[in-house]
Amino acid sequence: MIPQVHMSLLRALLRGRRRLVFRWRRTELDHELAEELEFHHALKQQAVGELSHIQMGNMTIAAEECRDMWSFLRLERLLQDIRYAARMFRRTPGFTAIAVLSLAVGIGGNAAMFTLVNTLLVRPLPYRQPDRLVRITGIFPRAAVPFLQQQTRTMDVAAVSPGSEYNLTGQGEAIRIVGSATSANAFSVLGASPARGRTFEAGEDSPGRDSLVILGNSLWRTKFGGDPSVIGRVIALNGVDRQIVGIMPPAFSYPSAQVQAWVPLRLDASNFLEYWAGGFVPLVSRLRAGAAAAEAQREIRPLIDEFRKTFPYPMARDWNRDSTAIPLQRDLTGDIRGKLIILLASVSLVLLIACANVASLLLSRATTRRKEIALRVALGAMRLRIVRQLLTESVLLSLVGGGLGILLGMGALSIFKSLLPSSTPGLAQASIDSSVAAAVAGLALLTGLAFGIAPALSASQIDLAQSIRTGSQRSTAAFWTRLRGGLIGAEVALTVVLVVSAGLLIKSLYTLAEVRPGFQPQQVLTVHISPNSSFCTERPACIALYDRLLEGARGVSGVAEAAIANTIPLDAEQPDLAVDVEGHPKSVDHPAPMFWSGAVSARYIRMLRIPLLAGRDLTDADGAKSAAVLLISASTARHFWAGENPIGRHIKATGERQWRTVVGVVGDVRQYSLSKAMPDWIPGAIYMPYAQAVREDGQIPAAMTLLVKTRANTDGAAREIRTLAQDQDPNVPIGQVQPLEEVVAGSIANFRATIRVFISFAAAAILLAAIGIYGLVSYWVMQRTYEIGLRVAIGATRSRIVSMILAQGLRVALYGIAAGVIAALAATRFLASLLYGVGATDPSTFAAVTVLVLGVAITATAVPAWRASRIDPIKLLRLD
Amino acid sequence: MGKPPAPELLPGTLDLLILRTLIAGPMHGYGIAQRLRQVSEDVLQVGESSLYPALQRLLLNAWVKAAWGASENNRRARYYTLTAAGRKQLASEREEFARLVGAIEKVLNMA
């Protein structure tokens, strides 16, 4: 079977090559054939005497058929069709531009979205046998790593921390990088090999052997100049010396694209706090050979239950009860999957609208070209040939649109990328590649055929005599007209869906912008300062550093006030602390609550205009040696002491011996995001004076943000503040000075960008729909010119004509809007995750969109309707 | 434009006939037509409009090759020669044709 196929293929190729040679030597062959035929003639004449006309004719046919044999007949006809189509397009540049552009927008958007979906959701992760990788949901203490590694029979378990900031020193200017701590087997479990050097070896996560680091490719290039000899060199991360053992390839971006270095996750059972309580980590595993994902899932829950009992302190009974194993890819794309799918759906809607539009344009063009086509039919063109010609035109149109679309897609891709968290693994690698280009070409071809087939068929059904005589068809081909109406109606409906979506998002953004964050960010500058934790082992050293800094900052001209805080609102940091609350004893079912814990200097509350609701503010007198105090937020007071006076009550970090006294209640601040003050698992917020503050590891927070309130001249003050901070210690990395208002705006930048994209989708849709309606109504008017002229002649007024045309156009628009509203009601609930403060079926948005689309429809109908009213019956009748 | 007076050949048969004719040796177009006519006792009269396209087709498939030579009357004529591939093709087409004819006869002779 196979050899046969090969043979015939080979033969076809050879034939093609010979044909090419024949084509090449065409003139020569022509001469040869002429001579041969003449020779044949001569002999024949000799034999039978005079030749009849018929026999002469045979000679011509023979010559022609032979010539056909030498050429690529089909190809040449195609080229002819294409040349003809190009000529037609040049003659109608407006039509061509609209058609090509709408297709380019549709196809370009799809190319970009398809690339993203393909890269992030479809393409397998760049690891060995990626389908065998699973994430064990939930986070676990380090102790769980050896436990699970020893107990499980289905998986190889590794831990990879999500990444935290490290100070990199000993290599030029101190910088802050994101690093991830991994168990020694993490790289072999993932199946990722280093670009240079090696990864961690077994046992290198045990104390004493863990002073190692693997560099990410971008860090290696930017900070180490891509020097291969750095392997073996020692650098300091957070003041700990580590030897560089390997460099990862650029494509490796686990657990997120921000992580630039990997260090061993130290597993030290003797360090009780770190081993059991500090920094829970996510687990990633590779299914062992022969183990099915379902087996692993069945195994996990009993194992976790068993592990829970080994905790040296009581652990909540439902701790990680829902843990299961999910494919790693789904875990990595979990948050963005929904957003991607929404965007893909919207961009497909735009393409559908573009297709409907181009089909409708082509239909009307086919009508205006009736005379030409009828002439060609009269001259003997076959119906098939006409259809092919018209299909060639539409396919050519869509291919040009597709080519332009790929260019547009490259631009669109970078915009879409900005909508997704930049830490998404693989995002940076997403680019329009050959497979996407091929898909786009296919898509273009398909759309060309899809929107070309109806016009082509309609054009080929022509009543010859009628069309040649008048150039138009008064007896309208009702079916095609109805089809056009249907296309435009559908287009309007899809537009309504997109505009409603955009409207809901805009309303959400508006609501978000109106949200009172609970503080005033105006005129406040922030700069991040991050000494090593080791620097703060001695609390007084750290307190002194920041006292010096505050004093210096207050001396800068233009600065009205200065304060420090461990986090500023909306900067994505989460300083969580497990606490004991007086009067709320914890139990197995009610473990210690997690609080958002601020460490702030005196005057921080006043500087941000956070309202003091009861008690007193923190003051400079609340120092390291004075009584431990704290402030709580209003919602914390409500949650724990509803109807009681919280002042004088007590809270402490779990493990602390001494209680801290609540001295004041302040207003709630949107710390995490503008849309949500706190995650559900954080029932409270406290502010401790910096000198008394603790982190979960019992140390004083080292990395802080300096905030200054300026009077004027922000630029000069910003520069001075940064210099001041740098002068304190060259080994302390200093961030960029950022206005607090920018931090606030930045927290919803992603959302804003998403909305911009939706608005551009909606705008494109509305524009296309307007063009579609305009084209449809113009076509009606043109077809009914004669009828309208008659009506005017027998006394119809201008306004009557206008309202007649308007009514017809609006009927299509109204059907479309009605269908669109129903579709939008069904579709917008998929947007719910993106909305804030507005329902997915918000009636006012729906009403506004209906009015907007209707208004656009009226405008698009009015122009041709007005033109219809100007029809002069006298001229018209003379013309015919 | 009428059809050539010769009876209709089964499609593809002409190629087969030409190939068979060329077994005798190189021949020019007119010669082939004459030969077919003589052998078939005037039944098969192949017109130029079928013959020359057929010859081009055979050339394209490399079943025959063509070369210019001198004719009986000392004019320049184009002579067609069977190639090895053409011989193979003839054998297989002949077999195929025999099968077809046999089948037709069976149908015609059925009781």
Give the topology, please.
The complex is a heterodimer of chains A (880) and B (111).
Chain A: H1 2-24, H2 26-48, H3 53-70, H4 73-91, H5 93-122, E1 133-140, H6 144-151, E2 155-159, E3 164-169, E4 175-182, H7 186-190, E5 196-197, E6 212-215, H8 217-224, E7 234-237, E8 240-247, E9 261-264, H9 272-276, E10 281-287, H10 293-310, E11 325-327, H11 328-368, H12 370-378, H13 383-418, H14 434-460, H15 464-470, H16 478-514, E12 524-529, H17 539-555, E13 559-565, E14 576-581, E15 594-600, H18 604-607, E16 612-615, E17 629-633, H19 634-640, E18 650-653, E19 660-666, E20 684-689, E21 704-710, H20 714-728, E22 738-739, H21 740-746, H22 749-783, H23 785-793, H24 798-827, H25 843-869, H26 873-879
Parallel strand pairs in A: 4-9, 6-8, 15-20, 17-19
Antiparallel strand pairs in A: 1-10, 1-11, 2-10, 3-4, 3-7, 5-8, 6-9, 7-8, 12-21, 12-22, 13-21, 14-15, 14-18, 16-19, 17-20, 18-19
Helix pairs in contact in A: 2-3, 4-13, 5-11, 5-13, 5-14, 11-14, 11-16, 11-22, 12-15, 13-14, 16-22, 16-24, 16-25, 17-20, 22-24, 22-25, 23-26, 24-25
Chain B: H1 13-21, E1 27-28, H2 29-39, H3 48-60, E2 64-70, E3 76-82, H4 84-108
Antiparallel strand pairs in B: 1-3, 2-3
Supply the key terms.
heterodimer, A: 880 residues, six-stranded mixed barrel, 22 strands, 54% helix, 14% strand, globular, B: 111 residues, alpha+beta, Arc Repressor Mutant, subunit A, 3 strands
Which structural class best describes the helix and strand composition of chain B? alpha+beta
Instruction: Give the termini distance of chain A in whole angstroms.
Output: 67 Å
| Rg of chain B | 15 Å
Largest sheet of chain B: 3 strands, antiparallel
Number of H/I helices of chain A: 26
The spatial strand order of the largest sheet of chain B comes to 1-3-2
Shape of chain B: globular
Note the gap between the termini of chain B.
42 Å
Q: Can you summarize the main beta sheet of chain A?
A: 6 strands, mixed, barrel
Apparent shape of chain A: globular
Output the number of helix runs of chain B: 4
Query: Structural class per helix/strand content of chain A?
Result: alpha+beta
Strand proportion of chain B, as a percent range, falls in 5-15%
Q: What is Rg of chain A?
A: 37 Å
What percent of residues of chain B adopt helix (DSSP H or I)? Answer: 40-55%
Order of helices and strands of chain B: HEHHEEH
Report the largest inter-chain contact: A-B, 28 and 25 residues
Summarize model confidence as the mean pLDDT of chain A: 83
